[in-house]
Amino acid sequence: MFTLVLVLLSFAALLAATPGVQRIIGGQDTPIEKVPWQVSFLHDGKHHCGGSIYNEFLIITAAHCIEQHIGKNFTIRAGSSKWNRGGVLVQVAAFKFHEKYTASRLAEYDVAVMRLANPLPIRGNIQPIPLAEEDPAEGSPALSSGWGATYNDVWDMDQCKLSKPINLRGVNIRIENKRKCYLKASQLKQNICAGVIGQSICFADSGGPLVVDKKLVGITSVTNNGCCLSPGIYASVAKFHSWILNALKEV
């Protein structure tokens, strides 16, 4: 039996339970110049999730990054490879998550948008990313990035230990057959499966980008059976394309 695990878990919660947290599974330090659309989504000044720049005012992320923290102090940091310094820091003014999203049904409707209080300076290391209108083909090379845990010791695996994050990480992976993510029928059309054992996403990568050919194809959602043991599940940008565009107008 496989269990879906939210990739969220704020850094504050992780630090309370473990010596620290680090980043994406099986990846490497990645300069923001390579992924200038990536932002760190901060909750009370701590890295909480990732996000992607749509334009100077609007950010795309995952619903589960927001749903349980309504009314909290949210900011985003853009233009820096480090979540805790550099670049620009901007307050989140408003957000909207999919009306059908519920925490009890993981990997379903896990998409949200945010509007910033002030515009981002679109230049150099701060750039928007276009939205994919079609899902990528199985086998397509993709890039996933974030400041999530490098290893996961929840399952007491010697090779899976958490350590404190600083730098942005990225991992080059491929789009996999959706069956490899053990998705239920209701989840198959909404999601993309990417990565392999040892190369995937983990805690606090949530909301971040999955990119193919410099287009946003997926929003980091969940992983099944633990960070070290399975591919990652991403909300399909193509499947939610109309909802995202409408939400970006309304938020």
TrEMBL record:
Protein's UniProt keywords contain Glycoprotein: no
Residue ranges of every copy of the Peptidase S1 domain listed in the record: 24-249
Alphabetical UniProt keywords: Disulfide bond, Hydrolase, Protease, Serine protease, Signal, Zymogen
Record's keyword annotation contains Hydrolase: yes
First and last residue of the signal peptide: 1-17
Subcellular location: Secreted, Extracellular space
Stored PANTHER family: AT26814P-RELATED, POLYSERASE-RELATED
The protein's name in its UniProt record: trypsin
UniProt organism field: Drosophila ananassae (Fruit fly)
